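Please fill in the sequence for the structure shown.

STRUCTURE ENCODING:
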């Protein structure tokens, strides 16, 4: 298998839109900034558990910070990383570039290190007594959170090419929800690895391996009985798990980075970086915003009255959740924001490509 980045185009139609003028209607500012190492990438995103933020950087730094102040609670250094971080507040896990899964306790002391079957570029998922990883040979492996012993292994056949972008697994009580290549969502029993349910978001199509890439991207969205996901070169689809995983609706809208939600609506940037809002119940389009066309947007996050999304020049844009109008803009760095933005009660967390983590608060 070869990993693919997002594909560059020389056609002028794919040039990033310039920054547009707008009337600011939201006050935004960085509440704190912390250095968490160096580097960045799709396999890294902060995670909030209670009043603590967990984060990691490719250089090998793993850190726990106070959410309100950014003060360091603990910080450790390990080998260079390919993915991180996953945490349930008790166990925090990262993966080295050699595929070694490393776990730490609540004080930052190393608990164990166990070898995954192959490389990992999706952040680990921690919960239900396991640390789960999705490897590049299309396995989902679960290690015992206390001992590091391999508990179970599930493998699915994979395509010749897979996308390298923002992907995460979702932890639910007793369950693990995983997006897979070839446009499929899989729900696994956390204790045994038994497949409880599989659903197709979209089927691969096209004459070439590139055209057939249809990976599920971002993090599966679980809202009550609804389970929603989006695929690259595919669709946005929601299933009702209370009715055996029946597909409720599907829209011909694809994404390279994934979805978020506010309990009533789904939000995403599509493959051309048109930001869209969809009604959760039936998929009805509510609004779309094209001002950020081709700006290589990150996975968005809901924060207060706004939807926040990062771009390739280090800007975080804030759009109205009501109608998609631009409300505010803040530059947090000079390089691309590839990590998913993460909502918190204090604001939105932004991990930059140069090893910084910021909490951006909103008022208005």
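FILLED IN BY: designer on duty
SEQUENCE:
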């Amino acid at each position: 298998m070869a990993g693919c980045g997002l594909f560059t185009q020389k056609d002028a139609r794919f040039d990033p839109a310039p920054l547009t003028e707008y009337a600011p209607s939201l006050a935004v500012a960085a509440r704190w900034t912390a250095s968490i190492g160096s580097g960045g990438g799709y396999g890294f995103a902060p995670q909030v558990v209670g009043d603590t933020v967990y984060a990691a950087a490719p250089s090998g730094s793993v850190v726990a910070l106070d959410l309100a102040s950014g003060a360091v609670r603990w910080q450790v250094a390990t080998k260079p990383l390919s993915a991180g971080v996953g945490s349930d507040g008790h166990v925090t896990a990262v993966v080295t570039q050699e595929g070694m899964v490393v776990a730490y306790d609540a004080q930052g002391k190393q608990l164990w290190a166990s070898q995954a079957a192959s490389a990992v570029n999706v952040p680990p998922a921690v919960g239900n007594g396991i640390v789960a990883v999705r490897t590049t040979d299309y396995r989902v492996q679960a290690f015992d959170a206390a001992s590091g012993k391999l508990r179970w292994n599930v493998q699915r056949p994979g395509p010749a090419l897979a996308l390298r972008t923002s992907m995460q697994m979702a932890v639910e009580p007793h369950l693990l929800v995983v997006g897979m290549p070839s446009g499929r969502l899989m729900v696994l029993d956390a204790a045994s690895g038994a497949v409880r349910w599989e659903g197709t978001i979209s089927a691969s199509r096209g004459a070439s391996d590139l055209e057939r890439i249809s990976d599920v991207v971002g993090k599966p969205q679980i809202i009550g009985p609804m389970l929603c996901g989006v695929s690259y070169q595919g669709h946005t689809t929601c299933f009702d798990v209370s009715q055996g995983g029946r597909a409720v609706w599907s829209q011909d809208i694809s994404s390279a980075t994934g979805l978020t939600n506010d309990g009533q609506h789904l939000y995403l940037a599509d493959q051309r970086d048109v930001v869209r809002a969809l009604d959760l119940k039936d998929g009805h389009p509510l609004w779309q915003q094209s001002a950020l066309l081709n700006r290589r947007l990150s996975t968005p996050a809901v924060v207060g009255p706004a939807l926040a999304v990062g771009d390739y020049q280090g800007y975080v844009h804030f759009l109205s959740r009501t109608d998609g109008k631009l409300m505010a803009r803040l530059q947090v760095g000079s390089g691309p924001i590839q990590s998913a933005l993460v909502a918190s009660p204090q604001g939105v967390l932004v991990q930059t490509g140069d090893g910084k983590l910021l909490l951006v608060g909103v008022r208005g």
